Protein 1
Amino acid sequence: MIELENQTNLNINLDLCEKILEKLTHKDIEVIICENEYIQALNKEHRGKDSATDVLSFPLEFDFDNMPLGSIIISINFVEEKAKLYKHSNDDEFTLLFIHGLLHLLGFDHEIDEGEHRLKEEELIKEFSLPDSLIIRNQ
């Protein structure tokens, strides 16, 4: 189950996100949709980077069956900017960032892996019939 905190007016396909979550894990997660100012403060506090970013993932340190997997924070500003750039919907862009963040919670890390994170993203984009335009940044 997704516990959603939407601090914006962005409408998302929560049912699709739930299906993606159920495909990958039985654990619950928290998703926060925010403005750049909020995500920038988190990025500075937790990663030492004083800039906004598209998505942050915070896995919980303890892995008990009844504990959530962690939290995903997504910037509406990046959603709108990238959707316009790649000519797809805000909802499609949000879903890509959701997938990206969820894979981080599950231990994928594109900064150090051999492309497994990107391949899994591409697999999920295709499986859930998301636009091919979402794959562009993976290539």
Protein 2
Amino acid sequence: MSTPITNPLIVIPAVDEAETVGQVVSAVRAECPTYAILVVDDGSTDDTVVSAERAGAMVASHAVNLGVGGAMRTGFHYAFRNGHDAVIQVDGDGQHPANQIGILLDGLAFNDIVVGSRFGPDHEYSIGFVRRLAIRILSRAVSIHCRTRLTDATSGFRAAGPRAIRLFASHYPIEYLGDTVESLVLAGKVGLTVAEVPVAMEPRQNGRPSQSPFAATMHLIRATFITLQSFIRRPPRGTRALVRPAP
């Protein structure tokens, strides 16, 4: 896992983020001028595409909203088809500071997936008690699958290396929280290594969240039970072969 990353791709899933996505793309370009940037427009009804293109990003558009999981599967498929050896997910609402991307990439030197945690000792993120408790339970369950300690399994600020790209290009979960929780469960089951690093995140700058706070909390609770059930589920057929090192 010590092969250096040479061709990373920043993937920004966005829906109705016209007011912020251009700023996010510009910040990423300033921080990582040689990285390719792909904005996946997930059925926006505003000028998200125009804002992203004006800032210099490539854009892939969905005709209808598929959710963050569907947007990320598109991003992973693009990365796989175009020879990228890392995918870094950055939200289009300004929560993920571009100056933290390097922290995630450094972790790929020895891991297949690196998750940016909002709950590090120096970067405590403000969140409601019920949601925080649900995230804690989820993270502990996912930690068992991944054989490492995780505190923020629902974080969307993360990086994936070559083996994870091969897996996720065709088997990335698209259900709500599949892009975060279930993708880590799948990764752990097929033998990918997962690490977590503390990062500083900002509050949402603009745009609309994919779920209301109440709905997000209910989905977190539901996802907790689904994740616990995942202990007895087998990974999809053929996924282990995708992550085996080349002979």
Protein 3
Amino acid sequence: MDDSGFIRLRLDRRTFLKHASSAGLALPLASCIRDGATKSEEVSDGTIVESAMVRRINRPILIPWSDNTVRILDTTSALPLAYVSLGLRRVYVENMVRDQVIGLLNAHVSVSTGLWRIPLPGDRPEQPLIPGDTSREFEVAEIWDWDLKADPTEGDFRIMPGAGVRTSIHFSCQPISGKEEWYSAGPWSIDQCDPSLDGTSREDFQQVGEGIRHTDRNCSRPGETVGFLTWVCKGPPIDLVTVP
């Protein structure tokens, strides 16, 4: 992105947040369950968006992940409000919601090092956050430093502008990037963030189910079982209030 594009992106985000704040609006972390729809519109990744409330993915972009897992590529280009990278051990955060994100993560900010100590999934509420526990310590960085094209690590999560919509994933004999392999999976019903809607949502990068890998183009012969990962909207509703 050139400098002018970067500046426009930053101003658009600032304008959005300032407008939400000045209007006295909280940005609720969506419960991510929406129903209904009649009107359909097909977009480039094979997603069918129905009245912007329900969508169907039947021609996903698939990329290799590991020997026995495949990633369903997310085509969202919106910049997160916060991103927790387990692989890089960093928390990327929008300064205007920094304090709210600290509370959301139940994080302790070290005065001496500036690191955020964050409980991991499965930790007991009373479990202490001990200085020097590198598995629970994260550097903090500006969200503008986050690379939208960077590969996530399983367990990463992000806080996105937008609301969750019910998404149906079901596909047959779809090719994967860079390999002579074809895949079938679903149907699965999950929730994903739609940045075109009002609100704020948390998405986790996780496995959503298992499907079949085929080595023949017609998918007529028996294949082997593989797992599929993508972004899933989850978690209890949370209010994320911005300041001007």
Protein 4
Amino acid sequence: MNVPGELKYTREHEWIKDNEDGTATVGITDFAQSELGDIVFVELEETETELSQEDSFGTVEAVKTVSELFAPVDGEITEINEELEDEPELVNDDPYGGGWLIKIKLNDTSQLDDLLSAEEYKEVIA
């Protein structure tokens, strides 16, 4: 499983990358996309939606299941990955790159410190 060391993780299998400009990029992990199988549809909340940590911000639908997505931190959605509307398989093909889900304006950057490191996340999925 690919677990990039520079990202933070949740126990619900989301990753978050601090963009170091007050925003962060959020997606699902390589482990999550492999467990879900072929993703056929992604539904995300609109931009400007305010989220609290652990709020649902959308769903990913695979051939056999639908999985909710949960915000790793408090903030406001500033951008959604519109490419996923036509190419949801990007989440499978490139979960840490082209398959990102949302960008969020961070309300409290210290929340990032409470998330799992790559090593801690590896223990969760072991």
